[in-house]
User: Fold ATP synthase subunit delta from Schwartzia succinivorans DSM 10502.
Amino acid sequence: MLNLQLANKYSRAIFLLAQEENKLDEYGKELKQLSADIDSFPELKTYLASPMIPVQAKKEVAAKAGAEEGLSPMVQNFFSLLVEKGRSELLDEIVSEYENFANEAQGIVVADVTTARDLNGSQTDRLSNKLAEITGKTIKLRPHLDPKIIGGVVVRMGDKRIDGSLTGKLQALQAELLAD
Assistant:
């Protein structure tokens, strides 16, 4: 719980700076890339989390990694602060929270779309347009595959769930028949 609160505070801070500088997308991409790079090197993650290594040595490694990635000075300084405060392990959560703040600020709603098979381009466009029409916001689809739903689609946007799957309809029919 404490880690989520800390991640929220750090992500809010970098989000506000990005918003002030009108660089929401740029900082978001850089944070995502930094997180992915660190995740791909478990040794680096362990190094940064180790209490046995002096903070200054960790900051030097973080600065070198940031420079090699071509990170903006703001994101480099932000990551250096995380390392200094011993919070580098929160980077994944910070990136996730940052993305939520940025989407909200830009009027974007993320819709998790579960289907039995991949949607083609026109199906994706129609679904996105229909959801945008319903919500009045820009929709960003995040596709998921689950053959158990047999057919149709299940959409989750925040706390709203729209079940148009064949499995969902069969379960509703079964419940209706058992209720009689």
